[in-house]
């Protein structure tokens, strides 16, 4: 964390406005935490007095860049910061092309379709096509989906370099161990994660059944850049087990979709 902050400090433009540079440094520090943070911890991370940090945070809250949780009093990024992040991520060519075509995929399959990109909190939803019979879910645009227990997250787990995902993976595994969570078919060990990644890469797509979100099934596949890394994940959601069939219509359509947008060859699903 400290090294990241120092790197951000070194990148300040010469000739800029010092007060603004300092404010942006505080905002970057807030973004580098995985969740709500105390004033003391944030001040320590950016190397400033708590009283000074507090004044900046008050301005950020007023502008929507930060918010303070009522129960704990901790601080986290606010709704406008999230909106800016989604807008910036959505400007990628890969993401723009996929976003424009997402309604076609939804109409072809009759299913709800999501487009996600990688963020520090996991797979962030940047576009959403709702099926004619919408699903009742607790997530939407800007939501972050877990790496281990969502189809979207599993795509990034399998198709991004480990250095980018290992911190988030470790955090989710630690939380699962602390809460005593366990799931059939997913061993919360290093070997278990490696096996999950190998299975996804062999099939070319990721899936989850109703054990994580009761009643919901999902399949997801990557849009790959020229290095073979996931630029985005495309996900189809259903309440039916048929969406999970490798030779089913949903997986066929998903494969056609990501194959048309990827720079590298991606898997071709078995034909029915």
Look at the structure and give the CATH class of the largest domain: Alpha Beta
Any low-confidence stretches, pLDDT <50, length ≥5?
Answer: 4-13, 268-272
Q: What separation lies between the terminal Cα atoms?
A: 50 Å
What is the helix fraction of residues, given as a range?
Answer: 40-55%
Radius of gyration: 20 Å
User: Mind describing the biggest β-sheet?
Assistant: 6 strands, antiparallel
Number of helical segments with 4 or more residues: 10
| CATH topology term of the largest domain | Beta-Lactamase
How many distinct domains? 2
- Provide the β-strand percentage band: 15-25%
The average pLDDT is 82
**In sequence order, what are the helices and strands, one letter per element?**
HHHHEEHHEEEHHHEEEH
User: What spatial order of strands do you see in the largest sheet?
Assistant: 5-4-3-8-7-6
Shape-level CATH architecture of the largest domain: 2-Layer Sandwich
Let me know the number of strands. 8
Keywords: DNA-binding, Transcription, Transcription regulation
Domain IclR-ED: 80-271
InterPro entries: GAF-like_dom_sf (IPR029016), HTH_MetabolicPath_Reg (IPR050707), Tscrpt_reg_IclR_C (IPR014757), Tscrpt_reg_IclR_N (IPR005471), WH-like_DNA-bd_sf (IPR036388), WH_DNA-bd_sf (IPR036390)
Protein name: Transcriptional regulator
